[in-house]
Amino acid sequence: MSLRITLSLAAALTFSAGVAIAAPAADEPIQPIPAAKVKDANLVELGKKLYFDTRLSKSGFISCNSCHNLSMGGTDNLKTSIGHNWNKGPINAPTVLNSSMNLAQFWDGRAADLKAQAGGPIANPGEMASNHALAVEVLQSIPGYVDEFKKVFGSDKVTIDEVTKAIAAFEETLVTPNSRFDKWLKGDKKALTATELAGYNLFKDSGCTACHNGPAVGGNSFQKMGVVEPYTATSPAEGRVAVTKDEADRFNFKVPTLRNVELTYPYFHDGEAATLSKAVETMGRIQLGKNFTADENAKIVAFLKSLTGEQPSFKMPILPPSSDATPRPTPFEK
Amino acid sequence: MSLRITLSLAAALTFSAGVAIAAPAADEPIQPIPAAKVKDANLVELGKKLYFDTRLSKSGFISCNSCHNLSMGGTDNLKTSIGHNWNKGPINAPTVLNSSMNLAQFWDGRAADLKAQAGGPIANPGEMASNHALAVEVLQSIPGYVDEFKKVFGSDKVTIDEVTKAIAAFEETLVTPNSRFDKWLKGDKKALTATELAGYNLFKDSGCTACHNGPAVGGNSFQKMGVVEPYTATSPAEGRVAVTKDEADRFNFKVPTLRNVELTYPYFHDGEAATLSKAVETMGRIQLGKNFTADENAKIVAFLKSLTGEQPSFKMPILPPSSDATPRPTPFEK
Predict the structure, then answer these.
(1) Measured CA distances, A130 to A46, A78, A317, B83, B331 (Å)
(2) Domain end (from A144, A172, A200)
(3) Cα separation of A228 and B92, whole Å?
């Protein structure tokens, strides 16, 4: 008992000392990401399986993980995604990592939350090209899933509401704490190099944190792309106006999170910035009217790479097999 | 010390007793699968990353795991696979599980081993559609990979030989021991139900084990498809003759493993048998001249499902990010 008290006291002292030496996180425009708290492990496990299940697509070839690949920063690292029948998507796939912190989902915020988002791609003809009725019929025909849905939701009947709830619950666990930048925020002054720290100060002093702030370093507002200079996009996306029908929202997009931005190339809603350096150059110029020198650009890029956190670590799910009654995929059917 | 001796002795007695009661595995045409032995953990880990890396494809969208999905029995559960530009493949993707036990790779055995196989799909225009020079250029441009290749192979220069060696080393770990059937083989008489055991006896007595034998329950010979009755395939594949140029080998295919066959639907080289029941019916008829009754068919299917082993269990790999110099995927370029 006395040992435990001693250790707790030491830990408290260390923590206080750390905070006292470094700038307290509360004074910074960026806050550390807390680790995910799993409320219902069975629900999350079911959601993980569904996230990886290609049978939610018409082709049997595309899963959530195809475009939000958890081996690759929760993205596909493509300018715009590949969908059913090799369809070229209209927009860059945003990362699923830390997406629970977004004020809304999709670049135009047309889904209020992850649960609302999850149903979209399943039924989008250019993405997974299935529909909710077929997706539910498929799952209902798989005994392993019926058992799991029953265990989690208490019913023999699978619903699309349960499907999207489970996927969202899994996605809520996909947060990336303990980046080097977060360690610095929490008081570990050695966690950043002098170059990275200089980059952070430039990032703040230049005004980047006006939009890229909070725990996700973005994701919490819609902003016009091209404030100082217009941006000519290769994507047909109109932005927030598509949802609000308010012309003032034309070309307003959700500010993307910069967490793990080292892994989520290429950048912007049209994916036209292939490198972080290019993205920093363009953002500085069109949003802030700043032309960063090569040295400034490199420092900001160095800071941004310190935002790479611990990637979600979990075992590949093993999916329950189809039964003889399961509707088969039809990848080549028109 | 005395406790340890006592326990060992008890274990030995239990084992002997089990073997004495049940038929010893050595008398059966099927043998248990031994667990994988990892010789070089770093090599296997590198191979796992490469297996999941879509950057080995021209599109940046297709990895080894796309068609040999380790969440789905090491297959894509499609009649024939989907390749670059939504190309419809000519043949059913065989499972990668236990493929190290095959006498050769591909349905026609045109690759001597897994290392020789691994290079094929990367450069096949209808599959991953890249080429070996580009694949190596991509990997060489990724600092995280250069470090890992150096650690494993001792050189700064990545070669396709190293790439396929690493992928093959990972694939060699993808074995599925401890199926219920293997437990029965090892003496646990309660591991099979009476129906499953009846199915196994039918499987043996009908002559299925003439081809489906050994630890992989197949994979160790080429046999003509359609011995008693001709088989009209929907696939253009000619079989072993494509390799040997010997007309006697026309429509000879590698006998597929039946391990995990519950998970590897649909069946046959053209994927035309959607269910195990259909596959058993067709095989009985065209290979053995037998028309199984519905009851016999169900018993054999029950036995076959007892061949599902422990699936490979590992953490999703996190892939090292591309650098600014990495050639970008070109999914829509002709």
Answers:
(1) 20, 22, 22, 20, 23
(2) A172
(3) 55
- B 52-111 near A (Cβ less than 8 A): 52-55, 59-61, 66, 69-73, 76-78, 82, 85-86, 88
Q: Write out pLDDT tens, residues B263-286.
A: 999 999 999 999 999 999 999 999
Q: Is the pLDDT of residue B11 over 60?
A: no
Report the residue count for chain B.
334
B317 touches chain A (CB under 8 A): yes
Do A192 and A292 fall into the same domain? Answer: yes
For residue B331, which residues of chain A lie inside 8 Å, CB to CB? Answer: 78, 82, 86, 88
Q: How confident is the model at residue A5 (pLDDT cuts 50, 70, 90)?
A: very low
pTM for this model (two decimals): 0.93
Structural domains in chain B (count): 2
Where would I find the beta strands (DSSP E) of B180-298? 222-224, 252-254
A104 and A204 share one domain: no
Q: Are residues A62 and A163 in the same domain?
A: yes
Q: Does B234 touch chain A (CB under 8 A)?
A: no
| In a shared domain, residues A163 and A188 | no
Same domain, B166 and B221: no
| Same structural domain, B57 and B128 | yes
Q: Is residue A28 part of a domain?
A: no
Return the CATH number at A255.
1.10.760.10
pLDDT of residue A307: 98
B313 belongs to a structural domain:
no
A85, A276, A313 member nearest B86 (Cβ): A85
Identify the CA nearest to B71 among candidates B312, B332, B323: B312
Structural domain contains residue B224: yes
Report, as an integer, the average pLDDT of A247-257: 98
Q: Give the range of the structural domain holding residue A82, as residue numbers without chain letter.
A: 41-172
Residues A290 and A203 occupy one common structural domain:
yes
Q: Rounded to whole angstroms, what are the CA distances from A89 to A82, A93, B114, B206, B222?
A: 6, 9, 35, 53, 44
The answer to whether A316 contacts B314, with C-beta atoms less than 8 Å apart, is: yes
For residues B287 and B231, what is the distance between their CA atoms, to the nearest angstrom? 9
Among the candidates A153, A172, A191, a domain finishes at A172
Nearest CA-CA distance, residue A89 and chain B, Å: 11
CA angle (B199, B203, B209) in 5-degree steps: 150
pLDDT of B6 over the 60 cut: no
The answer as to whether A231 is a domain residue is yes
Over the stretch A64-123, which tens digit does the pLDDT of each residue have? 999 999 999 999 999 999 999 999 999 999 999 999 999 999 999 999 999 999 999 999
B187 with B98, same domain: the answer is: no
A328, A330, A333, best to mutate vs chain B, most B CBs in 10 Å: A328
Task: Give the closest residue to B105 by CA, choosing from B304, B258, B240.
Answer: B240
Q: Which pLDDT score is estimated for A22?
A: 46
Which whole number is the average pLDDT over B99-116? Answer: 97
List chain A residues with CB under 8 Å of B70: 316
How far from the centroid of its chain's Cα atoms is residue B203's Cα? 21
- Report yes or no: A171 at the B interface, CB cutoff 8 Å: no
